[in-house]
Write a structure and sequence with these properties.
Layout (H helix, E strand, L loop, with lengths): L3 H6 L8 E4 L2 E5 L3 H6 L7 H14 L3 E10 H12 L2 E4 L1 H6 L7 E10 H8 L5 E6 L2 E6 H4 L4 E6 L1 H12 L14 H10 L11 H11 L6 H4 L4 E5 L2 E6 L1 H19 L6 E4 L6 H10 L3 E10 H12 L3 E3 L1 H6 L7 E10 H9 L4 E6 L2 E6 H5 L3 E6 L10 H9 L6 H4 L4 E5 L3 E6 L1 H16 L17 E8 L7 H11 L9 E5 L2 E7 H17 L15 E4 L12
Helix pairs in contact: 8-10, 8-12, 14-16
């Protein structure tokens, strides 16, 4: 392991050659041959793009390194040297943000790409990177957010798929309220106030909505500042930052893959092509490995090191997030568990400190719950089996009302959903938010063969909350009237904190477990009195989303 003082001894080897260059420092970290080959500035946009792509490819080289108390600029220089690329540090931008390029950094990388190493290192320091004129440039996150480039995306097959789906949609005046009773539907039609969710629009507009609503942005059309999109024939011309372009390319690829696939209960995560998704999946599997933890008043970092070592899962601590929350890495913790999943042990260790674990770049990242909620990504969900008429309005209501959220549409902050007319939902949320969405969609699909009405198992906390889907044989023609009847005859005083939504013959209820038992009995009695018998197997599924009231759940605004 090379320490900071070792770098001084290596000065004669020219590991880092820093030259004053305007507002920053340019360092040639390339081999002499590579530096000579790229010494001339590219003379055309095409040559510049080719040079930038070449640098991006070099950043996919693997690195294993352990830096302990190294100066930040030296770590960056060493990573650039290993990639054999030139780099530049924007000293003025760092100074404005109060970031010291000489600040000591402790970070370890094990067989990751150099790009992944940069992503693990820079954002937690409020820094970012981009490539320009064949040079890897390091600057502040705010400054990188002002560096826009224009790229074109050919999307002919995807646009045609959306266009074909639009042609099969019901008339616009039916979409969005086909589930309402006839008198309400007629009134709304007369007022012409509840028509097509986004108004009549072509396939390009649908896709632009998905891009602008479900990527990080910002966008001029949404926030009033940021990037912009125009379409020309079957091409999108987009001006945005490097980080946003990575996400846009991944979103369009996921949408194209989903549109071309056979309909089915699948999801398509939106991750840049260079993101180590397989490594994240390995971390998720590792969190299910059994560990034993018996520690009393030991430092947090020591306990974490011990349990992660048992499960053979790499981990990192977001020290900046912990520092902001005034949580010290050596805070004393106590835990006593034997042969439990690592995920369970971590929850017992981290929750009292307001911390959690998130798979990120192939490691288990320890950060505050608040910071984890801000770590959002996008997933494309195929819901063609749940929206056969192309209208996702009810399904979106169910998702936003029956999960913990928060949702932008309800709370003003949090996740968001954009539907596409070909039966795809584009959802942006935190990792835990996506877990809830996937679980809810899976349970809705399982209602084809409902399970027993009353779930079996050991007694549970009656004050904990769960979402349950009930099969109703004859709900009648008016969903709202049926829901009102349920709230009238089953614990009417309790519904200030409960939610119920009827979609088809599925009644989705989020409430305390103490309420679900009489509710299940009520639904059973209704079904027994109905003219026809329920499907074989009973009328109610197992509970799908659980959590103690007020604990690690963000209530929706309508439940507050």
């Amino acid at each position: 392991m090379l320490r900071r003082d070792s770098w001084k001894l290596l000065g004669t080897l020219s590991v880092v050659v820093a030259l004053a260059a305007g507002t920053g420092r340019f360092a040639s970290s390339q081999s002499p041959a590579a530096a000579e080959a790229e010494s001339a500035t590219p003379s055309s946009p095409a040559e510049r793009d080719a040079g930038d792509r070449a640098v991006r490819r070099k950043l996919q080289s693997k690195v294993t390194a352990d830096y302990h108390e190294f100066a930040l600029d030296l770590v960056i220089a060493d990573l650039a040297r290993r990639a054999d690329v030139r780099h530049w540090i924007d000293d003025d931008a760092l100074e404005i943000e109060g970031i010291d390029a000489d600040a000591p950094v402790t970070e370890a990388f094990s067989d990751v790409t150099i790009e992944t190493a940069l992503e693990m290192l820079l954002p937690q320091l409020d820094l970012d990177w981009y490539i320009e004129d064949g040079i890897l440039k390091i600057t502040s996150s705010s400054q990188a957010g002002e560096v826009f480039v224009t790229h074109s995306y050919a999307a002919g097959p995807l646009i045609r798929a959306i266009d074909e789906a639009i042609k099969k949609l019901p008339p616009p005046d039916e979409l969005g309220y086909r589930h309402l009773p006839p008198e309400q539907r007629a009134a709304l039609q007369a007022m012409n106030s509840y028509a097509f969710p986004f108004g009549p629009q072509g396939p390009e507009t649908w896709l632009i909505d998905a891009i602008e609503n479900e990527t990080a942005g910002p966008w001029i059309d949404v926030e009033g500042v940021g990037g912009s999109i125009d379409s020309f024939e079957n091409v999108f011309v987009i001006r945005q930052t490097r980080r946003n372009h990575d996400e846009i390319a991944a979103l369009l690829a996921a949408l194209a893959e989903a549109a071309a696939a056979e309909p089915g209960p699948r999801s398509f995560p939106v991750r840049p092509a260079t993101y180590p998704a397989a490594a994240d999946e390995a971390v998720r599997k590792g969190l299910e490995r059994p560990v034993s933890a018996e520690y009393h008043e030991l430092p947090l970092h020591a306990v974490l090191g011990a349990v992660f070592q048992q499960a053979r899962v790499p981990f990192r601590i977001d020290r900046e997030a912990l520092r902001s929350a005034r949580v010290e890495p050596d805070a004393p913790v106590s835990v006593r568990q034997t042969d439990v999943p690592l995920r369970v042990a971590l929850r017992l260790i981290l929750e009292p400190l307001g911390l959690c674990v998130v798979p990120s770049y192939g490691t288990a990242l320890i950060r505050t719950e608040e910071a984890a909620a801000e770590l959002r990504h996008t997933v494309v969900y195929d819901v063609r089996d749940l929206t056969p008429h192309g209208d996702a309005t009810q399904l979106i209501d169910v998702i936003e009302n029956q999960t913990s959220g928060p949702w932008l549409n309800i709370n003003g902050v949090g996740g968001s959903i954009t539907p596409l007319p070909n039966g795809l939902l584009v959802i942006r949320h935190s990792g835990s938010g996506h877990d809830e969405v996937a679980e809810l969609l899976g349970d809705l699909r399982r209602q084809v063969v409902p399970a027993k009405s009353v779930p079996e198992g050991p007694p549970a906390d009656p004050d904990s909350v769960e979402t349950v889907v009930y099969h109703v044989v004859e709900p009648g023609d008016d969903p709202r009237q049926f829901v009102a009847a349920v709230k009238t005859y089953v614990a009417p005083e309790s519904w200030e904190t409960g939610e119920a939504t009827l979609i088809g013959r599925a009644l989705i209820v989020r409430h305390r477990k103490a309420i679900h038992r009489p509710l299940g009995t009520f639904i059973d009695e209704l079904n027994a009195a109905a003219p026809r018998t329920p499907p074989a197997g009973g009328v109610r599924s197992k509970p799908i989303l659980e959590g103690a009231v007020g604990r690690n759940r963000i209530p929706s605004a309508r439940n507050e």
